[in-house]
């Protein structure tokens, strides 16, 4: 009996392009025709257990998972907390207890860091959290009401920081990646929780776990580089290893005509300094190239 292929959901809007780009890096091409919300995935393109991808509003994904419309999705944790809190048993003090979160992926709209759900207030307001009767302009209305049940919560469809800065509301709850808008409006803020992108699934399978590992591996590889070099003798090899072992344990092989070949995965940051350091210790035959995936 032929195994039924799964349906993956991804968010439209700001997160659609970086998510499609992430899948491209594991060899999966997702293409949507103009105004279409479905993309068929060829089984030969490296992800045979997923047959189609649906793009939809982030707020619709939790319900579509519960209703078996999609089997798994890549989306922000914020929307799970807002529209499917029972999936996560959310606890502000203790974090959350994953029910079907496969992996957390550290990327956002414009960077490789998690966005964060924050509460903002004017500089002169000393109380960091709302009291009974306080007004909250919240992009996450359900979450805000759950955390601050005695406050008056009004739904925000954007420009949350600006409305709080004008004094129209006592507090605002919004998503932030860089805090630039918060600082521009001269507001104070506190982080309520991180909101990583997550791979979430209705059930855990070996296939979906492997997909999560590959996606995480792509992100883990981005700040790393593979470097290769030769050492003519044991003395030079020892000098090189004294530098490289401080980063990641390298691979060393004997060369056919004497000497050693060394290979290591190193951070891209300060790569020039590393090259200068190793060159001074006698390294030759330097080669470096990008690393696509790191799965430990």
Short structural summary:
By secondary structure, the chain is of the alpha/beta class.
Structure notes:
The protein is an alpha/beta fold and 296 residues long. The protein folds into three domains: 6-111 and 196-221, Periplasmic binding protein-like II (D-Maltodextrin-Binding Protein, domain 2), CATH 3.40.190; 115-195, 3-Layer(aba) Sandwich (D-Maltodextrin-Binding Protein, domain 2); 224-290, Alpha-Beta Plaits (2-Layer Sandwich). It is 27% helix and 30% strand. The chain is built from ten helices and 15 strands. It has helices at residues 16-24, 61-66, 77-83, 85-88, 141-147, 160-165, 180-184, 206-221, 234-244, 271-280; strands at 6-11, 38-40, 50-56, 72-76, 101-105, 115-122, 135-138, 152-155, 171-176, 187-195, 197-201, 224-231, 251-254, 260-267, 284-290.
Task: For this entry, give a set of tags.
six-stranded mixed sheet; 27% helix; D-Maltodextrin-Binding Protein, domain 2; alpha/beta; Alpha-Beta Plaits; 3 domains; single chain
């Amino acid at each position: 009996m032929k195994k039924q292929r799964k349906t993956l959901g991804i968010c439209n809007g700001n997160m659609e392009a970086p998510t499609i780009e992430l899948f491209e890096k594991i060899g999966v091409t997702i293409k949507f025709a103009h105004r279409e919300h479905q993309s068929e995935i060829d089984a030969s393109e490296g992800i045979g257990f997923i047959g189609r991808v649906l793009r939809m509003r982030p707020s619709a994904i939790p319900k579509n998972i519960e209703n078996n419309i999609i089997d798994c999705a890549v989306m922000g944790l914020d929307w799970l907390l807002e529209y499917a809190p029972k999936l996560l048993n959310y606890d502000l003090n203790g974090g959350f207890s994953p029910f079907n979160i496969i992996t957390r992926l550290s990327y956002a709209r414009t960077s490789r860091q998690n966005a964060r759900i924050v509460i903002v207030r004017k500089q002169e307001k000393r109380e960091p959290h709302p009291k009974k009767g306080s007004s909250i302009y919240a992009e996450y209305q359900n979450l805000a009401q759950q955390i601050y049940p005695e406050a008056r919560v009004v739904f925000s469809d954007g420009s949350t920081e600006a409305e709080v800065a004008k004094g129209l509301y006592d507090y605002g709850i919004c998503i932030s990646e860089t805090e630039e808008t918060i600082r521009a409006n001269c507001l104070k803020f506190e982080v309520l929780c991180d909101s990583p992108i997550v791979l979430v699934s209705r059930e855990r399978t070996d296939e979906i776990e492997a997909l999560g590992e590959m996606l995480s591996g792509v992100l883990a590889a981005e700040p790393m580089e593979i470097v290769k070099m030769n050492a003519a003798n044991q003395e030079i090899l020892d000098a090189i290893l004294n530098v490289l072992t401080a980063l990641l344990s390298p691979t060393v092989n004997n060369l056919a005509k004497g000497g050693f070949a060394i290979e290591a995965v190193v951070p891209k940051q300060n790569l020039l300094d590393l090259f200068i350091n190793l060159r001074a210790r006698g390294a030759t035959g330097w080669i470096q190239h990008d690393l696509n995936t790191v799965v430990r």
